[in-house]
Fold these 2 entries.
Entry 1:
Amino acid sequence: MAIDFEQALGVHPSALAFRTERAKVIAGNLANADTPHFKARDISFENAMDSVASQARTKHMQRRSISQHHEMLYRNPMQPSQDGNTVELGIEQAKFAENAMAFETSMTFLNMKFSGLRSAIKGQ
C-alpha cells in the first residue's frame, strides 16, 4: 500500500513555506527601517491558509502544486514617522520573533508526523 505524503503530512509543509516567506517579508521591513517612504508589509496567515484549504478542496479534480504567492498587506503604524516610513522597529522585531516561534512549532508538528509514519512503516 502506497503512502500519500500530501495527505499524511497535512497542512504543515504549506505552513512552513508560509512562515519562510513571511520571515523574508519581515526581514525586508527591518532592512528598510531607515528608508524614507518605505511602507512596512506583512502576509496574513489566515488568508494564506484559507487559500491553501480552497486549493486543497479542488485538488482531487486536478493535480497541481499549491501556490506560495500570498497577498501582501501594508502594516498601519501606531506612530507614523516624519519621513513617511511605516516600519516600527520594535513591532517588526516582535513579529519576526513570533513568526520564528510559529516556524519552530510547525517544524515540531511535521517531525511528529514523520515519526508517526516511520513507526507505521516499521510496524511498531
Entry 2:
Amino acid sequence: MSEDRNTSRDETVPDAPPPLGIDELLERVRAGYDRIGASEAAAAAETGALLVDIRYAALRDRDGLIPGALVVERNELEWRLDPRGSHRAAEAVGHDLQVVVCNEGYASSLAVASLRQLGLHRATDLIGGFQAWRAAGLPVTPPDPTPGI
C-alpha cells in the first residue's frame, strides 16, 4: 500500500518555510524595490518608461485608460513582457526597460515581483494604481459611453 503524500491545510511540509499571509507577502515583495507615485510615473513615461495597465476590462470600461499605457491582462503579463518570450509585446524590448505596472496597488506589487524574476530589474508599480493617477489630475481617456456599439 502506498503512503498518502497529501497533507491537510493545517499541516506543514518539513523543511518548508512557514506560510505567509497576503499582507506579509506584500510587505516582503515591496521591500525589494522602490514603488513610485503618480507624478513620478508620469515623468518616467515621458522619458521612455512603459506604463502597463493590468486592470481587468470591467474596470477599464468603467474608469477609462491612461493614454499611452499598454493594456495587458494580469494573466498574460509575464508572457507579454518577457523580452525573450515568444508571445512578447513589441514594447518588450529588453531587460533594462523601465516598466511601471498599475492596477490598484496590490496585484501590481505581486506582478512586479514576477517581472523582476524574469530579469526586468527596473520594474516597479504605481502606488495607488490607476485611482492615484486619476486623483493626481493626470490625463485619463474617459470610458466609451457606448461600449459594444
